[in-house]
Write a structure and sequence with these properties.
Blueprint lengths: L1 E10 L5 E11 L4 E5 L6 H8 L7 E6 L2 E2 L4 H7 E4 L11 H11 L8 H8 L15 H13 L5 E4 L8 H16 L3 E6 L10 E6 L2 E6 L1 H6 L4 E6 L3 H9 L4 E7 L2 E6 L5 H10 L6 E4 L4 H9 L2
Helix pairs in contact: 3-5, 4-5
The structure holds adenosine-5'-triphosphate.
The site of adenosine-5'-triphosphate (ATP) has 14 residues, from β2 and α1.
InterPro entries: AAA+_ATPase, ABC_transporter-like_ATP-bd, ABC_transporter-like_CS, P-loop_NTPase
Protein name: ABC transporter domain-containing protein
Pfam family, one: ABC_tran
């Protein structure tokens, strides 16, 4: 179990830059807990503190009975940490990297091969290739293998899917689901809101603070406003006109659509006519169910 209480951290002389502003949460054994938020929100700072790499200014954290400050040696044994930036030795081969991490932790690849088999088998054909010459998806699989090779109880993965193609991202999440089945607790961060649904619980973070924490469904269920998706061929011009409409509370581009939150008394046909009058003739508008990203936008615009 992970128990985090009121963590604060600032950087710079006289602590000018507040990175964490009082973070508290718990993660149960075997849970996948996702910390979701934009760049600079404080995710890496939080994970570096929990991995015992930097000290908090105040607050505490217990990871499976061990205190991150007092018991930092033990913490490093029971966690597997995959930093956001590529952490492997670029000039060592795939196999040499894995051997190195196994040796540091006093184990061997053979001893814990069963844990990494699923993942490592996919990169084993390239075991003699330099890590620096691997694709993004393969680097990520090697980094995860290295984080797992000492059989950690808790995995801390900082933005593990950033810069990874959609197929490798899906494979990665399937692997995490299998690790969870083996009882490993997984704490990860992501800037991709569509990954929220693969977590048991999530926390939304912004400016060093969690502003919502629940199951993905729990977060979505709290969204009670009317939400529509607008499609058309001149998206930025449509967005501009929508922002001038007083019945629209919020609007933002969402992939190839625009999501808008509207006043309860506005009707779809009424808005279609408004856009038609502005010469947008091919506009489609439909009522939709919110996603975690819609919740994030709603909560951060308050
Ligand atoms: N070593 C440092 N010195 C000064 N400021 C820092 C340092 N590390 C992070 N920060 C600042 O602290 C804030 C939180 O950064 P952090 O890296 O924890 O966020 P993040 O959510 O992980 O984002 P990113 O994905 O961009 O790393 C940011 O404003 C960042 O600029």
């Amino acid at each position: 179990m992970i128990e985090v209480k009121d963590l604060h951290k600032s950087y710079g002389k006289s602590g000018k830059k507040n990175a964490l502003n009082g973070i508290s949460f718990t993660v149960e054994d075997g849970e996948i807990f996702g910390v979701i938020g934009p760049d600079g929100a404080g995710k890496s700072t939080l994970f570096r503190i929990l991995a015992s790499l930097i000290l908090p200014d105040s607050g505490s954290a217990i990871m499976n009975r061990y205190d991150i400050v007092k018991d930092y040696r033990k913490i490093r044994q029971i966690i597997g940490y995959m930093p956001g930036k590529f952490s492997l030795y670029q000039d060592l081969s795939v196999e040499e990297n894995l051997k190195f991490f196994a040796t540091v932790f006093g184990t061997t690849i053979e001893e814990n091969y069963h844990l990494i088999k699923d993942i490592y088998q996919q990169i084993e054909p390239f075991k003699n290739r330099r890590a620096g010459a691997l694709s993004g998806g393969m680097k990520q699989k090697l980094a995860l293998s290295c984080a797992l090779i000492h059989k950690p109880e808790i995995l801390i993965l900082d933005e593990p899917t950033t810069g990874v193609d959609p197929v490798s991202r899906k494979e990665f999440w399937d692997m995490l689901a299998r690790l969870k089945e083996q009882g490993i607790t997984i704490l990860l961060s992501t800037a991709y809101m569509d990954e929220a649904g693969r977590c048991d619980r999530i926390a939304l973070i912004r400016k060093g603070k969690f502003f919502a924490s629940d199951t993905p469904k729990g977060i979505i269920d709290k969204y009670t406003e009317s939400l529509w998706a607008v499609e058309g061929s001149r998206m930025s011009a449509i967005l501009h006109e929508l922002r001038n409409h007083e019945g629209i509370k919020r609007s933002f581009a969402f992939g190839d659509k625009i999501h808008i939150t509207v006043d309860d008394d506005l009707q779809i046909d009424e808005l279609k006519q408004y856009l038609l009058d502005k010469e947008f003739s091919d506009v489609k508008i439909a009522s939709i169910e919110p996603t975690v990203e819609d919740c994030f936008m709603a909560l951060t615009s308050k």
